[in-house]
Amino acid sequence: MEDKQLLAALQQHPVLDLYQLFQEVGQNRSLYALLERLSSLKEHHQLSTRLSPFKPHIEGLLAQFDSTTQDSEILKAVAIQSEIQQRGHSMSRYIMTSDNHRHFSPNADLVMFGDSITEWAPWADIFRDVSMVNRGLAGDTTTGMLRRIDTTLNVKPKLVCFMAGINDLAQGYDVDHIYQNYIDILKVWQENDIRILVQSTLYVGSKLQGLNSSVELLNNKISEYCSQQGIAFLDVNSVLSPNQILSNEYSCDDLHLNAKAYQAWSKVLQPKIEALLK
């Protein structure tokens, strides 16, 4: 879609239907690239169009200030409230989701354990013939996973399928820190005689590609450790990111996966799981 079409959409609608606009643009384009272009056009042409019906928290915060408030005071208040909102949202999700996982724990042969890439996958639709629970939790790091690893043990699984690490890297933790957490996590399952399938930490797209060298290093260390320990390892990147970068074909935000990605992933994952559950 050309700029003139995006500008027409901004001029014709007080509130954009961002979902519909993204579908028209095509799913091989980054959603963030679209938002950045819309925001630039809106600013350049001094338009008041809302980019979607969603009202971000910052709008309500800015409305509290008037023209006499100094910019430095506004910036400080925005920074404080943004931190509170982000930390609160992340921790409340962690508290509530892990609490649910501790109190609702049916026995299952398979546990899918990880972060949002695991949590948001349609595993129940993919593994129709396997008793399975999803223990993914959006935003979680390997440190958080260590704290809630009991939620994998309480369902008495035969197999745990594990992917993690990208949130740690995004938050600035080094590869050695993540690697040690991996070892500690894997040891818990080994000590409980649970079979393990470790999956590679996924590469990310262009917006986050500065992380990809660390992703490669982490995967090399984990793959080598799994080989030494006799733990199964699946390189999902060979399917989703053969060029060491996640394509917009598989993601609209350079991180999370769409249905096409989960379909490609499940084709290589299902045979591995079937073999390990025998």
TrEMBL record:
Gene Ontology molecular function terms on file: phosphatidylcholine lysophospholipase activity
The cross-references to Gene3D superfamilies, in alphabetical order and at most eight, read:
SGNH hydrolase (3.40.50.1110)
All copies of the SGNH hydrolase-type esterase domain together span 113-264
**Protein name from the UniProt record:** Lysophospholipase
